[in-house]
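Dear colleagues,

For the upcoming journal club I promised to circulate an example of a predicted protein-ligand complex. I picked one with HDD because it came up in last month's discussion. The inputs are reproduced below in full, followed by the predicted structure.
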Amino acid sequence: MPTNPAAVPPESSDEPHVPGVPSTVTPEVAEPVEPREPAPPKGDQSGPATGSPTGAPTGLPQEAVAQQGEWLTTAQGDRMHDTDHSLKAGPRGPVLLQDHHLREKIMHFDHERVPERVVHARGAAAHGVFTAYGTASGVTKAAFLAKDAATPVFVRFSTVLGSRGSADTVRDTRGFATKFYTEEGVFDLVGNNIPVFFIQDAIKFPDVIHAGKPHPDREIPQAQSAHDTFWDFVGLHTEATHHTLWNMSDRGIPRSYRMMEGFGVHTFRLQNAAGETTLVKFHWKPKLGVHSLVWEEAQLAAGADPDFHRRDLADAIEAGAFPEWELGIQTFPDTPEQTFEGIDLLDPTKIVPEELAPVQPIGRLVLNRNPSNYFAETEQVAFHVGHLVPGIDVTDDPLLQGRLFSYLDTQLTRLGGPNFGQLPINRTHAPVNDMLRDGMHQTAVHQGVAPYRPNSLDGGCPFQAGAAQGADIEVPVPLPASRKVREAPESFDDHYSQARLFWRSMTPVEQEHIIGAYSFELGKCYEQAVKERALLTLAHIDERLCSEVATALGLPAPAPDAGSDDGLVSPALSQLGQEWPTEGRNIGIVVAPGADPDGVRALREAVFAADMVPLVIAPAGGTLDGVTVQRTFATARSIEFDALLVAGVPAPAADALPVRDAKTGVRGTDIEPRLALLLGEAYRHGKAIGGWAGAEAALTAAGVPQDAPGVVLGGSGTEVFEQLTTLLRSHRVWDRFPAAS
Ligand code: HDD
């Protein structure tokens, strides 16, 4: 019998509420549920589906759930009565070698870790469903892109440089990898949130990663590009200029995984049922728009909540605010030159501006279920650009070609052998009948005696399929008549024109952020030559960019060398200038004792009704005037909130610092310093701020001018909230940033 009452199996067999729909069983998306706080772990609840203590809520089939039965056992199923004491020769005596349970438990623990990914080690993932519009059927025969086809997916987002435990909000490129479990096999779209790459040839990948990772002597800095070796590399490899500029833009610090674009980067080749081919680039367009943090927020979040993006994704899905993207393609004729409007489609440092080739929507992705076990799913998922289905093929982009080797190879070390495809998260949903056998971690029990072809002993099975049976037959692309060389094509030599296009397409406030980012990153470098070389690169992009960064570094700006350009601008590259849905945004509500509790309750309802998340912030936890408090002044930090509403002025703490009235200079309107910090940061970061029921004093004390753009006062809480919602559609109050005025 269990000795600890807490270990008694729960009697209830009620299935716990799980937001989202298991993608393995049905593609329908559940009705969004009311946003709420993340639920506590569900580990102590039983469920009828599996009869296991932890398996029921996962939506996984019985065989994928490790735990069965109610009693603690060894790995061999031997029931245990005590896992808290080693077997000893007397209570004070030595431990006996015969204690198998002790040895098994510690042996297994000693080997719990697998090597982290050599890049993209830090990530978060979710299950979902992809539903095709059918609009791609003219260019591809891929079955999952046929009209209304619904395909389960697993998507993993990541940073590139940091280790598994590093912070989410560092300045970096983000991975956006999607596994489509199609009826024709797995298709992986292994992309990034930036449409270009640092290098043009995969043979340079170890170099760029060695340069970006921490210095090998001290192993610092973690998850940063702000150091000498990174800037040494990009200064010496001018092909990296375009991608580096994207990284230094707001794209390098996304607000949320839910608010990122995704790009397949390379050009792919599609083939339709008639055998015709089309070149395409894949784009993911987020329903909520593309939004970013400001740099100070990103830095604060790295300390205050290193799991910022991971938490945001899981909380949103749990609250029923399912993240959504549209998949789109840009299409190009498959000509022998493989260029479009003079742009080399095989060069992964180039985009094709959307104004030249519009992105055509072909389907919708909804993420609706969180993983139930990080290791089994998010850590063990193995993506591969070579996981393709009939109708989608690769091109000769030399970066893509090298990736085709790397993604298979890396799993041998990371997942311990060639059978990683059998791990539940990696299993295709199509029938498998291969002739791969044995090897480390083999879990299949293969039948028959003849895993070779042709054979006469297993009835000739398995049989080879033809086109009529949906076989994946290579597109017979003609090869260029050429010679064996280690060379890049001449067109790959243009390293600056698209960096200029990107810079020109930014609004003034976005350009200011880029100048700030270069100034910060290069300011963290020590080597004079590295900084000077970086400035030489900037001189090729824009004179002002170069001179302002040079001023920040205290160095002379080199002469501008802006080349001769077409002056093209691509408004689609800017994140500003449109309005976006506000679903899933966090609204902080600062309350003081006695400050309109009914108004606060009504406001919470209004925020819920707008599909946003209200988080009440009070001096202490518990409830205040009957309103549940979610955050206290000790636990709240501005980074968490997209907008703040203040009801009343909290009483000053006994040790509060006196705060001077920003306008009058008069001392006396003291507020809690942590509240002053909260409001001051929200103001500085361009967030909408509202107040009612006597909030003016708190705002004044925090240095928030009442007549500043995006500060709304008066009326009721719900009226103020309505105005804040309008502001939130633009993500931030851009007028508060100096460059915007
Ligand atoms: Fe890569 C992981 C994206 C170039 C070698 N890559 C990895 C992941 C993403 C990308 C999103 C994480 C997948 C996951 O969540 O498990 N990589 C890209 C993009 C590239 C790119 C968009 C250029 C357009 N990668 C690239 C090159 C090479 C690699 C040129 C090697 C020659 N990438 C790897 C890898 C990783 C990986 C070492 C580490 C873990 C893994 O594959 O499974 O094989």
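Two points we might discuss: The two ends are 72 Å apart (CA to CA). Residues 1-58, 653-658, 664-669 have pLDDT under 50 and may be disordered.

See you all on Thursday,
B. R.
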